[in-house]
Amino acid sequence: MAFKLGLMKFLKHFLQYQGIPAPAMKNAFKAVFILENRCSGQNRLIKRISKVTIHQNFNYNSLKNDIAVAQLESAVDFEPVCLPPTNSRTRGQGTIIGYGNLVNNGQKFPCTLQEANVNVYSWNNCLKTGNYRDIINLPKTVCAGFKAGGIDTCNGDSGGPLLQVNSAGNYYIKGITSFGHGCGLQNNPGVYTDVSKYIPWIRRNAGLARTARETTQKITYTINFLSFLGSIIS
Predict the structure, then answer these.
(1) Which of 211, 194, 76, 220 is nearest to 138 (CA)?
(2) Distance CA 58, CA 172 (A)
(3) Alpha carbon distance 151, 130 (integer Å)
(4) Domain spanning 6-79+198-233: which CATH class is it, in words?
(5) How far apart are CA 101 and CA 157, in angstroms?
(6) Which 3 state secondary structure label does DSSP give 119?
(7) Per the CB 3.0–4.6 Å rule, which of 107, 112, 153, 230 could disulfide with 159?
């Protein structure tokens, strides 16, 4: 089944394109699918992006409401990751993936997609870490990593997913990589936009039905998902 997909991406990459004419937007961004090797570009599928909707209350300085929806110009055969229930509980473990930097100091970007399992911390628990001052006014965020450090997202992973598995065994996107202090530092887990806090906004701006049942019944709706690769290229 051909789903028409969109992407959600860390917003700072979009800001420089705000206000440009719609025809120019089509040439500003592209989405990359099935990228087996970032360095060789082997077997990649590229689609143009026709529209980007940035959250109306996004704040570049605080990164509050760090979320956007992008729509592809044409359909692509791809299975989207599930959205979480609205205001779902934050707990357990999750999976982070991306092509971001592998070291805290210096640059070491991988050719192949990286994956790691991390602990997921609610906003209240994250307030007990070194992120307190940065997230005290960002209640729609979660954190992920380890308080001891070592495993984390890094530069180049922005916009990628924090995935969890529901009771049915399906992956859903709990968070979108937003920001952090360094990479893998002790007591500084990465900060992610809590997708479950934005479900009404996502459905409204992505043209989705109000419920999963309605979405199933009306599969002609544009199905939007969150980029697992941070794979928008300019």
Answers:
(1) 194
(2) 23
(3) 16
(4) mainly beta
(5) 8
(6) strand
(7) 230
Type of residue at 229: L
As a whole number of angstroms, the distance between CA 49 and CA 36 comes to 21
Residue with tokens 């995935």: 163
On whether the CB atoms of residues 160 and 191 are closer than 8 A, the answer is no
Q: Residue 97: which of 140, 144, 63, 65 has the closest Cα?
A: 144
Q: What confidence score (pLDDT) does residue 13 get? A: 34
Sheet with 68-72, side-by-side order of all strands = 6-7, 68-72, 45-54, 30-33, 232-233
pLDDT value at position 215? 40
Cα separation, 120 vs 190, in Å, equals 10
Which residue has 């120019």 as its token pair? 24
List, for residues 9-67, the tens digit of each pLDDT value. 333 333 333 444 455 555 667 888 878 788 887 778 888 888 889 999 999 999 999 99
Distance CA 198, CA 193 (A): 9
Residue 15 C-alpha from the chain's centroid: 16
> pLDDT tier at 225 (50, 70, 90 boundaries)?
very low
Note the pTM of the prediction, 2 decimals: 0.80
Contacts (Cβ under 8 Å, ≥6 apart) of 2: 75, 76, 77
Sorted by where each begins, the domain ranges of the chain are: 6-79+198-233, 93-196
CATH number of this structure's domain 93-196: 2.40.10.10
Number of H helices and number of E strands within the chain?
Answer: 5, 11
Phi, then psi, of 82 in degrees rounded to 5 = -75, 155
Kindly calculate the radius of gyration of the chain based on its CA atoms and give it in whole angstroms. Answer: 17
